[in-house]
User: What shape does this take?
Amino acid sequence: MRKRSSSGLLLTILLAWLVLYPVLIVAADAGHASAIHAFVSRGTEWSALWASCWISVLSVVLAALIGIPLAFLFEWFEFPGRKLLGSLIALPAVLPPLVGVIAFLFLYGESGFVARGLQYVLGFQQAPWRLQGAGAILLVHAYSMYVYFYLFTRAGLAKVDAAMIEAAHALGAGRWRTLFRVTLPLLRPSLAGATLLTFMTALGSFSAPYVFGGGFRVMPTQIVASRLNGEDALAMVETVALALLALIGLVVLRRTEGDAGVVSLGKGAAPQRRVIRTPLARVTATVTGWALAVVLLLPHLTLILVSLVPYATWTTEAFPPVLNLDNYRRLLEEPTRLAPLVNSLWMAVVSTAGAVVLALAAGWMVVRRRARLSKIIEALVALPWALPGTVFAIALATTFSVMKPLEARWVLIGTAAILPLAYLVRNIPVTGRAILAGYRQLDPAFDEAAASLGAGRWETFRRVSLPLLSPALMAGASLAFVAALGDFVTSVVLYTYDTRPISMEILSSLRLNEIGVAAAFGVVLMVVSAVVLAIGARR
Amino acid sequence: MSFLSVDNLQVRFSDTVTVGPVSLGIERGEVLALLGPSGSGKTTLLRMLAGFETPDSGRVLVEGEDVTGVPPATRRFGMVFQHYALFPHLNVGENVAFGLAKGTERDAQVVEALGLVDLAGFERRKVQELSGGQQQRVALARALAPHPRVLLLDEPLSNLDPSLRERTRRELREVIGRVGITTVFVTHEQEEAFDLGDRVAVLNAGTLEQLATPDQVYDAPASLFVATFVGRANVLKGSGALAFGGEAGEALVIRPEHFRLVTGPGVAGVVRERRFTGASAYLQVEIASGVRVEVLAEPRSAQVGDQVTLAAARKTVFPS
Assistant: This one.
């Protein structure tokens, strides 16, 4: 009995030290009167805060406008190529944020393919536009975040009982009335989930505002700018402000979720897909579907194309004149190029392993042992998800920049440990949610059966629980690995030259105008991410 | 001294929910049925025997050895779970081998255990491919393979189709008999308890109401609860009890098959309902306003609306 509570307590303390303590230290350190005064009195701070709010809300609206109709199209109608297109459409999820941003830059930027093409065709002297400011950020957000609405809505639609829709029709409701009175209310939990996820992602988004923002600042870029200017105290106040904004958003949006029980009432099958029969509508649906897929795949294709352009061979032409594998060769042959690749790989492996171990411990404590601290452990596991990456970057940078062993603070900044630690903290919710869910679905009778057959606790875990948890574990670990591999938002604050990750190398290559190398790194990230996610999704 | 003894075992879940104290003894090779309605504490008692539930007080003894504090892993009690808990990531052979020590004899032991339940040659099958009855037998083979001291079964037949249940029950009885293992099983079905159990322990609201052979439990129920829970029974109180020779303050329990339709003196009544089952008929006879009894009669002895006279061949008396 005593052992039970002490191991639970140990895990709680460890989790609190990782995810809560650094945030509290920032909150305490932010209490400088002069910094607070500077924050409150400067107009730029208020406009960045306001920009974060409205960019996030508009991102939700745009993502919903694209994602929801697409979900209905692919879930309710049958047309040639539906299955293939349906999975292609989820592809933006595979692009790490920074890679998506540079793909957009190469495609729609002022010297991107579209602009060059127009210049060439119409004979402009200058680029017809600049991809910059709020519009550019919203474009990238809409492109990368509609996937949440698309996937959530499709999952929700698949659960809607066809009999409910038929019942509405039988009661005299027409198609639109049924949609608004029955289908959409049933989808409410799914839509609320997508809204929350999109809002939180947009609020914490750093890559797009960093690359495309220019003078336009949102809170995450404002924080990093303050830090670069040496205004550490101000950066901490800004961090606390962003954290509060995120928590307010979380609380407000949680209230819109409604009763999830509404949906589980129906147990029947989802409606049959309507086959589009009239030839014209069929052709239209098919052509629209494929055209859409091409538009959505263009950034990926652009990235691959640019990665084949050797250094300084593409100047004013509309299309690059030389294409070869030179950039990939340089990636592998030049030690300074190979280093970031190796760094990102080992740091992602280490941080993922750590996050998996912590998640397994949490799952075991919360679900199996029902430790008294269960609620607290679960809250700590979820916390890093509720706070933007920049908040954690600043919090960890602050906490681990002094040597105070008595306060459980050591100097980790500037060492190889800080980035894996940051990735680990950020990934605890990802592995935690997957493994907790896996544990909850695991019949405790399996453990008991193993025990009654003579297996001790460790043997039961190794021979029974772990193999049965492996789908959940793989799913969580693959997401965590991909997130760590492509991380930009915490790396930009915490990296050191010796442990610089791929994202920082992409950025410095761009600065040196080595776009081919940057794109090649992007392709590597994209391919590795896709492969790892595919492995993780296998059942 | 019994082979397996339960000595004043008790566990408290809340102020109102307590199981025990229960004391009972089981002889070597005996099969004991724990029978009771849901919530009676029968599964809790079984789980305390297995070691999955820790009693607040009392002891579990095997051949005089106190095993109350022995964890399930070293208790050497085999268990068949209600939904079998066959490991889905292992095949049939690997499931059966799970509790066996690594070594040269392991394969032979698996073959032996599977042969015992008539599943020889099933080693490589996936457990998901088996029928419900086959899964139950694999679970039994897995529990028996390490040669446990006691076999525990939690509602072993409840997960099967009614059509399969009787056959599986026969097979289960046969295997247990052949192995000769001391067995405790939980059920809420009287027929199962009577068919499989050498003795039956009837539990209600956490207490042991009666421990006896099936015949004794049926013919001489120890309490009003046992009389009504086991088999069909009419409970007569007040004027109804007086009519059949009871005294004030007594409750009479009369089984439907113990009523006789007579021509001489008896209790007069009117047949209100007749349920024909083929070999016999159940009659609902109203003997006074609002007082009905169920009577098992010859199929063509009476029709609805008939006036009949009833006599009770046997009755059991309880304080009301």
Observations:
- The radius of gyration of chain A is 25 Å.
- Chain A has 24 helices and two strands.
- The longest strand of chain A covers residues 77-78.
- Strands of chain A lie at 77-78, 274-275.
